[in-house]
Amino acid sequence: MIYNKITEQLLQEITAIVGADAVLTSEAEIQDYSHDETEDLIYFPEVVVKPKTVEAVSALMRLCNDNLIPVTPRGAGTGLAGGALAVNGGLLISMERFNKIIDIDEANLQAIVEPGVITEIFINAAAEKGLLYPVDPASKGSCFIGGNVANCSGGPRVVKYGTIREYMLNLEVVLPNGDVIWTGANTLKYASGYNLTQLLIGSEGTLGIVTKIVTKLIPKPTQDALMLASFATNEDACAAVSAIFRAGIVPSALEFMERRGIEWVIEHDGLTFDLKDGVEAFLLIEADGSDLDSIFADCEKINGVLEQYNCQDVLFADSSAQKEELWRIRRTMAVSVKSNSVYKEEDTVVPRAALPKLINGIKAIGSKYGFSSVCYGHAGDGNLHVNIIKAGMCDEDWNSKLKDGITEIFELTVALGGTLSGEHGIGLVQKDFMPLKYSPVHFAIWKGIKSVFDPNGILNPGKIF
Amino acid sequence: MIYNKITEQLLQEITAIVGADAVLTSEAEIQDYSHDETEDLIYFPEVVVKPKTVEAVSALMRLCNDNLIPVTPRGAGTGLAGGALAVNGGLLISMERFNKIIDIDEANLQAIVEPGVITEIFINAAAEKGLLYPVDPASKGSCFIGGNVANCSGGPRVVKYGTIREYMLNLEVVLPNGDVIWTGANTLKYASGYNLTQLLIGSEGTLGIVTKIVTKLIPKPTQDALMLASFATNEDACAAVSAIFRAGIVPSALEFMERRGIEWVIEHDGLTFDLKDGVEAFLLIEADGSDLDSIFADCEKINGVLEQYNCQDVLFADSSAQKEELWRIRRTMAVSVKSNSVYKEEDTVVPRAALPKLINGIKAIGSKYGFSSVCYGHAGDGNLHVNIIKAGMCDEDWNSKLKDGITEIFELTVALGGTLSGEHGIGLVQKDFMPLKYSPVHFAIWKGIKSVFDPNGILNPGKIF
Fold this sequence. Notes:
homodimer, 465 residues, alpha+beta, Uridine Diphospho-n-acetylenolpyruvylglucosamine Reductase, domain 2, Uridine Diphospho-n-acetylenolpyruvylglucosamine Reductase, domain 3, Alpha-Beta Plaits, 8-stranded antiparallel sheet, 16 helices, 21% strand, globular, FAD-binding protein (chains A, B)
């Protein structure tokens, strides 16, 4: 695809659309938009704009489409796959000014929000009305709900409450030619036409730019209990995961963490936490509902399962403060790992009973290639984030051999019935691995769909495939 | 689109693929495949085949694609929108021999099933292992799981457990050119490439033929309670629906039924049921879980809400037999209505707090055009099935004016934030109404997607748009 550069004339037209205060052109101003949370990647767009209205986004898209200017839509820039990077320069559209919660409709248990609302702000606004929006990635304090839609983001509560797909009812979307549509209806279900809402979710900003979001909400559970179980081996902890469901329990969170992850959180955050010898892995397990007795009964049952898997110790959080602290360990793990070592984060997902084979396989592949790893993630969904640690690996090996090691990890993931990325997306950095799972037929269909929406290929080019 | 007829030569090739015992050509044999459960529609395919393997389906599709023969895939033929009718003749592929439950994987809480498995047989097989597959349309005793996927079918338990979209993990699909793909992975979530699983769900057999299905299962709740609440007006019953959720309860079923529907079930099924004077509408409300005390507490709360909406009486089912009988009333209502009058069934869905306006509007439109109606459905989802009753309407009005009345019902539905069809699909009979909700931009995208999968337009032509 041959793109044009943004000329002085085009810049004037862009400025006329959004106003001078919403256009950034200097290197210093654009710097912040040249990277996301993916390791070591820097791409400068030519121009950054911060529109506020759907009309402005539409006019920008039409202008860029007519002039073959590549467009990169961007949420909060917290992505882990390079999806928001302007790899072809061009125009970067930051959605940060689309930051209004338009309506929380208590009669229908629905909300209308703009895509630039920070996920946690929306979660809290819903909670104030006794409602739950259960999509809460670890980055919830900074990521945008629009980015969550684009990447099909998850979080700990997917395991009980379903993925973001279950909550997105209707999306207002600006298409690459500037047309604006609502993808569906503000209803809990419908069966009329190919479901464009679902097609847009996880499309990583390559099919259209979401400008309004209608979400489902549910009554917020009033009670919960949180327990941290420790194990001597990763394998035991992972094997306990599927056994909990087999015992008839669906926890509201079921997270796996390796010891080293917790050690680094302790170092980085200055937490006091009594990390016993011989403990290598942890499960953080939450149960929620409206009735505390019934939650405790579930916890008892879970305990019974854990014992069968050589659980060493169960810490039962006895206050909200302790619950908050345990959750903080899990949520800040990514940041702590990042601050401790050069690393690469991979996102794997398998059927949950395959977790023990996955974690053992990852460690074996690490031994073969000379890297170590810190793994954690949403074990209840079979979703394991693999942080590959450079540590003692020499630069040459890190740069030349690592890709082979990652390839082996994904080959194992696929062999276990899984796939690349449970919730981080493919973006720029995972696309080379896509052929490990998907065939030329998949690529042909995906590219065909892309061409239907974006015949000129201007929207977020170079991502996914 | 110009299609070819099935020549003697092609018939020989078809027979070579599936075997002579799997090919039907005489009018008498094909009769059963010329209609579905939609009113008054008869279309004969030229040939019916009943393949047993994915290889056979692939070879049939390739042959038909090469020779421009239209292909109609068919499940159990229980559809209500004419989606399985061979409107252009050609080859009808019945999936009835794909009737195996291949695996119920208790370690992963997943199952692999063929699309021709009767939904209830699968539900029962899962239940025997303590697992719940919660997608149970009223036709569950005869419909196929593959037809449910094609039509995005629902049922009473969507309201708590989510739509069929939440349960379909991975589909094996034969594309119109004979290529076979798996749409995704056997995982509870993933974010890698446009989600073809979700695109296939609800595509009504126009993009590919599903030959294997991987579903999610969940632990089956061990306890439930069922109550039937009666109201003097439809409006009160409908208004109570959203209030139940606002009170923090998510019932496992919340069904609305009009008095006349119950009267007709009593007549048709010879049920004994004490239908009190002055009662016009009913809500059938189920709560489930693992703890009976907690379920009863929910029922108390629901009762409190019902009282605020002038509920006249609440019948609390006190045995499994009584529960079964109440459910039978709801499930057999469609059949009873059908046997009592010439009718047309429409499927509407709105945000649930809009139900009172929807039902009042439907009655007002009926008065204007001279038809009456019996409404019932999954009120908790805002999904109302509208059975328009011919009764005293003269043939001329029925044939000439009815379409205007239906148009007004759908205009109202759309004005209330809803859309056509919550779970029946568009098929043949609803497609004229699609422009009431969707714009030329939607149609252009849908047709573009259709062309990507099926450039020759051979697969289930004439459906949806």
